Every structure is written in C-alpha cells, then in structure tokens.
Here is the input.
Amino acid sequence: MLKNLKKGAVALAFISCFSFSAQGKMIEDVKGNQIEIPDHVERIADLWHANNQIVLLLGGADKLVSTTTVIQKNPWFSEVYPNIKKVPALTNGQTIQMEELLQRNPQVTLLSNDNMLTELKQAGLTGVKVSFQDFEGLKKTVRITAEVIGDNAANVAKEYIKELENNISFVEARTKSIQEKDKPTVLHIADGKNLLKIDGGKSIIGDWINKAGGKNAFPEQANLVEISQEEVVKINPEVIIIGGTNAPEGVEKIKQDPSWQSVSAVKNGRVFVNPTGTFPWDRYSAEEALQVLWAAKLFHPAQFKDVDMVSKAKSFYKKYYHYDLSTENAQQMLKGLPPLK
Here is the structure.
C-alpha cells in the first residue's frame, strides 16, 4: 500500500512538472516580482524606448510586435534594423494605444512605467517591468530581457555583460591613481532644448562620470532636474556634455550665450555633444559599454590616448548588431549626428 502511494506521488509530481513546463516558466522582474511567461516567446511588445535597443542587441528584434514613437524616429535604429519601420509604435512612453496592442496579441510586454503596467494587467496582458539607474541595474535588465527572448539571447547577454564589466574595469584601473583635484567637474545637460535641465549624480549618468574619472557637478541630484543659471556659474564646471537629439544646437547656444561665458568649460572650449546610436549612449543605453570609454578619454586624454573610439564603435556594432559601421558613420555617431546615407 505504502509503495503504491509513493509511486502515485512520484507520478503526480512528474505530471505536475510536465504540465508547468508546457504552460510556461517563471521569471523575475526588476522589482523581484515573479511572473509566468510562455516557455517560447515569439511575440514581444516593448513599450520602454531604451529597452528596444537591448532587444535588438540580444537578437530579438524580429519578435517585436510593438515599439515606441521614439524608437521609430531614431535614425540609427532604423539604419541598423530597417524593419523597425514596419513595427507599430503604440506608445509615446506615457500612454498605450491599448486596443491596437491587444490586436497585436503580445505574449510578453516589456515596460518601465508603473501606470502603464497596471493598465496592461487590467487588460489581461503579461507585463514585465525593466528599468535601471546604474550599471548593476543595466545588467539585471539585460538578463531579464534575455530570459523573455529565449533562443541564444542568454549567451549574448553573458558576452555583453562581460564586455561591459571589462570596459569598466579597464577605465577604473587607469583612473584609480588620479587625485580628486585632477578629476574634472562635469555638467551633463539632458537635451539641447533646455540647457538648464541636467542629470545629477544619482543616475546612470552620475555612475559613468564617476567611473570615467570625473565628478558630477550636481552629485545629490537625480536625472532630468531643473537648475538655475546662477547655480551653473557658481559650480563652474570644467566639462559640459549635452545629450539628446538637439545636442549640437545646444553646444552652439552655449558658445554664443553671454550668460555662459564665465564658465570654465566654455572659456576652455570643453563643451561637447554626447555620442548617440541606436539609443543615446549616455542614458539607459546598452551602449553605455562605449560611453564609459568615450568619457574616460574625454576627461583624461593622456591616460587614454591609445583608445580609438571609432574602432571601438565599429567593433561593437559588428559584434552585437551584425552591422558594418563605416568609419564615416562612426564619426557621425561620436558627434551625436544621424548616419550618412
């Protein structure tokens, strides 16, 4: 009798395992929530601008059934992956075109906005939250996205994370002996449209500035914070970097605006455009692996004179996107400009 009961228990356990495997698998989002997704995901909606780049990097772009307006307008993304123009853009990052999304029938939706996640659940769709504010969070988001994509994505994620960590270690090894007084104070402006909206130290921007041997001008602030012109003049940054699609125009504005002329970075010609690619290198980007090298070379050119950023960009794009980036277009990228046709 006891032997039969044991056999029955084993059989039931086997059936349960088989049944669960057929239904799906459990993954953990960035908040530690357990979420069941299908074993094999073929239809992904990605409603966070930045994460579309991670999907592309991991080889999952052909599974996208929905993207965002920002990604569809990104000239580098469509240059590397022309099919993105055929993927419906069903969010601007704040609201969802839910009826159209339901028609696309995604098996999993990746997103960062909590309100949108709630709306998604109410509609009966499976949402997985991804987001980050530092390099550790970036690595976690890459791993989660790889779990959703499946196939070879986990191996690509491991290789990418290894490269990211190697680049950070390389930079930190060369900057660790630099004294605090020799680390430049860096002001990072979010976009060329508003020169007083900045990214502080409590963000991934602060993370790469520190790792590259700089000091964030506003170490206690988060990202996308409004400051005053008086604060900028008082802090007197030695380096200014402008991100966003209007960065080149922002640099010209600063050079011509009398209120900026007393600032050290302006007087010494150290106002720069941040590179951009399939997503801007500076924020929420898998191309942070390149950003940390670029920033280190910018802050400490003597210590990193052997680092060829054109070569690094070309190698990265070939390895992860299987795209042959020309020297001319790599130079465009480093200037924050769209690709040459």
